[in-house]
Write a structure and sequence with these properties.
- By secondary structure, the chain is an all-beta fold.
- The chain is built from no helices and eight strands.
- The chain is elongated, with a radius of gyration of 16 Å.
């Protein structure tokens, strides 16, 4: 219905399930996630539709980032839910904070 709810940090768990290494820049990105909200009996798995979605814009904006579509597979109270998502990651490229 479009409503939102603020979740405190202890209401969910987030873990990266795998990584992808760019053959062009050497940046190592998380490439899959599991989000669990135990209080809502909700488990969400995100997986990139394509691993190589890195953009090297150092020549124009000076950053390297990863952005792309995700497949969503989830369960709430044991009932399967599918969907789509979008993720953007910054700070993983060479010469960047965290990279």
């Amino acid at each position: 219905d479009g409503s939102t709810e603020h979740l405190p940090a202890d209401a969910f768990r987030l873990e990266s399930t795998r990584t992808w290494t760019s053959p062009r820049t050497g940046a190592v990105y998380p490439a899959g996630w599991r989000i669990e909200l135990p209080g809502d009996a909700l488990i969400i798995d995100l997986e990139p539709t394509l691993a190589d979605q890195e953009l090297d814009t150092r020549a124009s904006t000076g950053v390297i980032y990863w952005e792309g579509s995700q497949r969503v597979r989830a369960t709430r109270n044991g009932v399967a839910i599918d969907g789509e998502a979008y993720v953007e990651l910054t700070g993983y490229g060479p010469d960047e904070v965290g990279g």
